[in-house]
Amino acid sequence: MTDWILKALGMDAGDVDGLAGWSVRWETAQWGLLAVALMGILSLLSWWFYRRSPQGVSFARRVLLTALRLSFLGLVVAILLQPILVLTLEREVPRTLPILLDRSGSMALEDGDGMSRLRKAEQALATPEGSAMLRSLEKDLEIPRFTFGTDSLQEWDSSSGPLVAEGDRTALGEVVRKTIERYRGAPLAGVLLITDGGQNSGAPLGEAARQLKDAGIPVYAVGVGDPAARDVAIEGVEMREVLLADDAAPVTVKLRTQGMKGESGRVIFSLGGVDVAEEEVEIGEDGLQEVSTLFVPRRVGEYVLEARFESEGASEALAGNNSGRTSLRVVDRRLKVLLLDQAPRWEFKYLEAMLLRERRVDLSCFLFEGDPEIARVQGSPHIEQFPARAEELFDFDLILLGDIDPRFLTEERLALLGDYVSSAGGALAVIAGKRFMPAAFARTDLEQLLPVELAGTSIGSANSAAVRPLRLSLTGKGRESVMLRLGDDPEASEALWARLPPIYWAARVARAKPAAEVLLTRPDPDSGATNTPVVALHRYGAGEVLFVGTDNFWRFRRNTGDRYHTVLWGQIIQRMAGARLLTEVPRITLRANGRRFGQGDRVRIYARLFNASWEPREDELVEAVLAVADDPGRRQEVSLRAVPGQPGIYRAELAAGPPGNYRLALPGEEIATLDFTVSDNNREYVRAALNESLLRDFSRETGGTYFSLAGLEQLPAALTERSARLTSLKEVELWCSPLFFGLIVLVLTAEWIVRKFSELK
Question: Looking at the domain that runs over 588-679, which CATH code has it been given?
Fold first, then answer.
């Protein structure tokens, strides 16, 4: 019946399985009232004329003729209103099941059987069982086949020969997203994903899983590889970029382990091919663990520090990921530190004594209430007056600002300190005190420099001593900070902080500023807060400001002597002042958006240039030279252009070249350099084992199922919906359709026949 109706309307019924509904729309409905009036008038006229027909015509025949005439008139009026029939049609179509086969670099790994993962996946689909399964599915489903290396899809024809595993990263989320975009509007039975789960790039899979779940598209993941593969990978080697000669510096190696719990090994550190340190490693649970050691460079120069893992146990799935490296510079110069305070309080005395013992520190002190004669004593670190000019103050690598009366820190001096930090890229550490700092500096330029917001209290209430001792707690950032690291690792450091003697005073502050990092907190008995900032850090312009909200660190000496007090302040000073070590010339600062890059990454270089008077340079263009340490003959010119509206600031951007150690040199009367490393950015060999848990979670969250490669034949049973009923709207212009005109002809013919039989003209 549906087919006959559709044909009558002039439509092809071959692709339609049924009619779900219909409706009529009048295209010229605005003339509806006029059409009704016209129809009424014509109907009355028709009835009046047929009433006056000869008496020989029966009443029934008169009614029939009237009805026929009215039907004709109704059809004519309908033509004027242009009716459009809207049909809701149904059609059953096969769903689509795209097959996505991973051919990224990690699929070339062999899991001890001499066959790559990619080859195993190909054979699983090509076996008689696999081929039969696909043929059975193709009876009900559309099954396009694709391969992917990074995040791009390529159509795959198995008859074109064996595939080659290549690519330096895998972005499963991007691959699935592109598949959905490709088949937007088409009914999908799901996505068949064959991979080792080496997700290492792009958006997290959770985002893709939510998108698939909302769209009702399940993922059927097939894992390829050994989930229990033994492997240790070095994911990174972390240490300071610039070290002082004969100064111990921590080096941290990040190990990712799999399937080797309870085994032991060692991490060997080598400098220039010569082993310099070694640390034993007890491998714990699968995942990330850190190994740290202290490295003491002896000679000035440029080096590459390599860390490699060695084990005497059974072989690993992948040995090529057992090493990592980082570049470093060893310099032999002293850090210039300026210590400012009102009077020699306890923290000042112990801090001065500690800094005088440090051979790596060139200390200058100034006490606003001190005896000027002290500065005239031979060998005294004290200076006679506060540095009043930029060329005097800006040469310091670090300024330690103590408990100073605002009357002595005038607006001019505060402005100079602000320029020192924001423009010259200096480091400022503000040490709170009971008399003035920081409460007395509310609503001054110094408050703008601080990484904390001051509490709205009077100086006395803000600086009053605590009734009970205050215990300090490390934050997450504090556990990671080298400044507050008192133990060999973050866990040991946190345990030591918990055992340190308490403090008895800390400055009242409201909260940290939005961009600040809070490293150390305390409870506040007055407000009830448990995490009031004590040590906080933030960037301010080109430099950094550290807030130390207590002058009670000297209490850490109780029963321990100088041990923890010296270590703590030594690390703070080296971390804060060390930024100036990145360049040989303080007036020339070169920075990049990282230390390590992958080949092809964008390297953004920034330069802050001052003349001898610490005035910004005004050149439009500054030329630099980029050379490769391993190949001095490979050089290129780099142009740094002035940044509009930022005096003395220059910028350049370039693509990272082949792997190697690079040095950017800015020639002139005083040469400044910047070092960075370009490494092979292949992420495929960081993890050797099949990431089975990732694929299971991904499948479950999308409503799909996870299979091992051996269990691939279970896929047909998991596919519950293989077809879909699609609905579509079809509009038919009735007023010009064959059916409509056929009705008009039929009505007119019927009236003519009846009139002839009635002997009417």
Answer: 2.60.40.1930
